[in-house]
Known about the structure:
The structure holds 2 protein chains of 2 kinds. Chain A contains no helices and 11 strands. Chain A is mainly beta. Helix content of chain B is 0%, strand content 54%. Chains A and B meet through strand 4, strand 5, strand 9 and strand 10 of A and strand 4, strand 5, strand 9 and strand 10 of B.
Amino acid sequence: NAGVMQNPRHLVRRRGQEARLRCSPMKGHSHVYWYRQLPEEGLKFMVYLQKENIIDESGMPKERFSAEFPKEGPSILRIQQVVRGDSAAYFCASSPTQRTYNEQFFGPGTRLTVL
Amino acid sequence: GESVGLHLPTLSVQEGDNSIINCAYSNSASDYFIWYKQESGKGPQFIIDIRSNMDKRQGQRVTVLLNKTVKHLSLQIAATQPGDSAVYLCAESSSGGSNYKLTFGKGTLLTVNP
């Protein structure tokens, strides 16, 4: 059973470009979570999605960031007009259900570098 | 604001010794705690979890202790091995509608010397 897959593993963008990060959850998992890990900081929750629905995006910056989890295909985290402060590791996690005690399985992350 | 933090940012031990990694939390509503291991360049890997109605839980070579009175969590690793070298992250969530939202500490870097 393959784990959570993320691609690309490394992404370099120039200021003003768009970044698209992809996440395929574990087989059988319908809940996806995105976290961001800035240098010298802990992981911060960004958004929680189920298929075709955004459940909680309270951790997403108000501008330039969006996320989706379509009926078919991976979840996408999209960052428009990237700035240097967006440089970070972005992790996706998945779970089979939203249980009260919620073990989330993490992917290897995408390391975004903005030049 | 509510946070989860770590007492020691780095810990260096000799192979075969026991390791203790500590974590403090401030949210009195926290009722689920998880320890993750994060190796360089990889995502967090689940180690062990504990619910607030427990004060101790054991896994393979690992034990998690929870002291709700002082809001303190610790991870004990027995007979530490070089492969245990990594950053250890504690995380918590609260019961209720946002129980999926994990709050992480910054982590403790464990280095195991052969």
